[in-house]
Amino acid sequence: MSDWYEQVRRTASLLGGRTPYARHMAEKALRDREGTKDAFFSLYRSYLSPFRAWPDPGWGTELSNLERAVLVALHHDGWTEQETAYLCGRSRRAVRRAGEKGLRALGTDGTALAGTLRAMTKDLPAVAEREPGRNRTGCGALIVCLIAFVLMVAYCSALDASLGQHAGRAPFVALAFSELNPLRGPMQATIRYAYRVDAPVTGLTDGSYWVVITESDQRLLVEDATPSDLEISPNGRRLAYHSRSKREVVVHNLPSGRISTISKADASDYELYFSPDGRRLAFASEDKLFVWDGKRRRVPGFGAESTLNGWLTGGRALLIDDSEGVRAVDLNGTVLFSTEDSDHVGPLPDGKTWIGVGSDENRFTRYGRRTGRRSMRLPATARLEKVKCWTSADTFVISTYGYGPSHYYRIDIETGEAEPLPALVPEDLKEVRFPGCV
Fold it and tell me: Global pTM?
């Protein structure tokens, strides 16, 4: 038995309760990582995956999955903030905010919570051995075959329904993976989307990398980009990312091959957003907000509790989220408007409308200038996972789970029409970027 078995099993019990499922996921993580410390990586990522439904752990019912995972990693497992960010696939800022919000929701502090969590796993019962002479292989194989058959039928039905729904359009064709080449030198390629591959080496060594897909279906490896973030300009000709080698934020201009240095600070603190015209880059670092257009200048009105959420249409102002809600500020720091409702997605880039999206149904509600409810015209077997970003004042991109011609759709807020986006990524990778996302 692995030296890490008991520790991984205790962590799983805090995430999924003292259930057979939690124990199974702990054992699976250890098998996947050959009994090494990397099993924690698999465990946390599976817990936060939208494709896994973990049972109620019996504590912290007011917490989100991310808040619970962060609290367990920091105050039970003893990971640092940076290690927790890597384990959960989030930025350090997101981890910090999730941890603080989780402690507030529980009404406690880190020291007290650490004692509580240790007490919860202190008397974890021993694993019961499987009864001898019982052979479940045949039954398990039959169940697997039945599930595979049902999924095949569901997929074919969804594909037929989707093609009928989008009659008059060219049918969606899956993209074939091409050879993976480095992104180097001048090129006329236009980027269609990008995805992140998480590939740890040993311990918590970071082996993650980004792959960009061009309009001609090339797969290009962005060798120098860290996994913390990567943004694509609306025209698909520029990339902004955190450089591994320089430890700086850089902008890579594909047509010229030129790489411009933006700032020299801890890359993990940045949030990057291209303006709608692609000429400027907004980023937050060390509780300060900056805009770069060849020169860098600071935008006032940004504090320790603030988060940059992108640009308004036209690039005249930036959207900032903090403890009091969402507000729009121009480049001089003047507040143009604000809303106290930070639970909704938005405001939209038009600055006058925002939406609320229910996770239990494929519908959204518009508020502000264009109030009303509308259904998203998704395939019958596709369900909303989350809103990825805004691509204009009238469209937003969502990711889905289930079956259909794509896992990503562009939604029109006037009609609810869902246009499948041809993004072919490995099955377990859902960190995807599209051009112009804000």
Answer: 0.56
